[in-house]
Amino acid sequence: MKRLLLVLALVATTAGVTAQNPYIALQGATEGADGIAVSQPRTILAVDVRVACETIVAGPYARYAQKYLGVRAPLTDKTIWTVEGASVALLDPAAAFAADSPAGPSTAVVSHAEADGEFPRMPVDKSSSTVLALEDAARDAANAIFSLRRHRVELITGEAGENVFGEGLHAALDEIARLEQGYLELFLGKRIVSAESRRYVVSPQADKKQYVVCRFTASEGLLPASDLSGDMVVLQIDPSGNLSSDLEAGPKESSVVACRLADPSVCTVVCGGREYARTVLPIFEFGRTIQVALPRRK
Which of 160-169, 181-190, 216-225, 256-265 is predicted with the least confidence, judged by mean pLDDT? Predict the structure, then answer.
């Protein structure tokens, strides 16, 4: 009876240690106060892939940007996806059930962009019923930009009057900047960048070292692994083969417990010939089972 209690105490202690040490875990059946527990160590990996989407919306006066502002502007709308990075980490088995749910996308306005996607309108001359041609409207918008810039210089240099200073000056400069930005959007268009991260779950197998977690295209972003139109996002696992352990019992030990030793493997995420993540993680599937000696009774 005392021998049984000693074994159970060691099992409990070892379980606590292995919970903190991901490189070794109990394997097989053990008997505890709550009954018999069967343990089969396994590794579940979470591969997080981060992508960014850049959307270019051409301005209605884009073709006249070179003529009236001296700058080139995009003439057509386009969307470009890029892979920003990736990461690989151990995943708790209980969390694996919800791991496929992607994180909500976040949108960041970078330059000449509005969240609503609408371009500002030129002020309407209510005293005239004439509708301006597109080029005439572009010329008026360019003149408005230059006029705003002249007013900014006059305010900064004091030529606009001695009574504009302090908070009033700051408010006037902010309003000029807002109006100028609106007119510039008519020529330069909008550029909106959004980012998102998706998680893919991989359960390694002892006879497989490469896993296609998903696919990617610059026009559509992340795609399912079954969609052959995109480049493969591959998780490559390279076992080290270093499976030696000081805990392994000698041949003369009679009281032992079976434990699974994980292999410290290099996990790499590659897409389009470029490496996006590299880390070393313990993989039980590439490890081996060892016998750990129980402490002897004094």
Answer: 160-169
